[in-house]
Design a protein that fits this description.
The chain has one domain: Class I glutamine amidotransferase (GATase) domain (Rossmann fold, 3-Layer(aba) Sandwich), CATH 3.40.50. It has a 7-stranded mixed sheet with strand order 1-2-9-8-7-4-5, with helices on one face. The protein has a two-stranded antiparallel sheet with strand order 3-6. The protein contains 2 helices and 9 strands; from the N terminus they run E-H-E-H-E-E-E-E-E-E-E.
Length: about 170
Amino acid sequence: AEAVPVWHEEHELPALDAVVLPGGFSYGDYLRCGAIARFSPATAAVREFAEAGGLVLGICNGFQILCEAGLLPGALLRNESLRFVCRDVPLRVERMDTPFTSRCARGQTLVIPVKHGDGRYVPPPDLDPAQVVLRYLDNPNGSVDDIAGVCNARGNVMGLMPHPEHAV
C-alpha cells in the first residue's frame, strides 16, 4: 500500500483502500481537540467515504476528530490528572472481528504508547458494548470503563487514543 496525503481543503478523496487520521494537533486544538477540524472539507469527504463502507482509522487527534464529526460515539476530554501522559500502556483486545483487529485474539494484551493530554474517553449512555474494541489494563487518563478504542456500529470506522504506529 502507498500513503497518499490529503489536504484539509480537498472536497473529494482519491481512490483509497482506507483513510487514517493520524495524531497531531489539528488547527492547534485551541478550541477543543478536533472541534475545528470537523468542519474541514476533507472531513466531509471522509464522512462520505465511511458512509459508503470505507475503512477509517483515527489515532489520537484523529480519534478526537472522528468523535467531533459524529463518525464515532462519545467525546474525549482532559485527562483526569490534568497532565499530559506519555508512556507505554497495556491494552486488552475486546473485539477481533474488526478490519483493524483481525490479526489479534480476543483478550490479547497489546502494549502501545499513549501521548495525550485530552484522552479521557466519555461514551454516550447508550453505547453498545459491542462497539468497545480496546480497553486499558492500566488506565492512564480516566477513560470511562477503561475504554481505549471504539468502532462505529458497522465496524468500518475505529478510533483509539494510543499510537500503534509508535509501537513498532
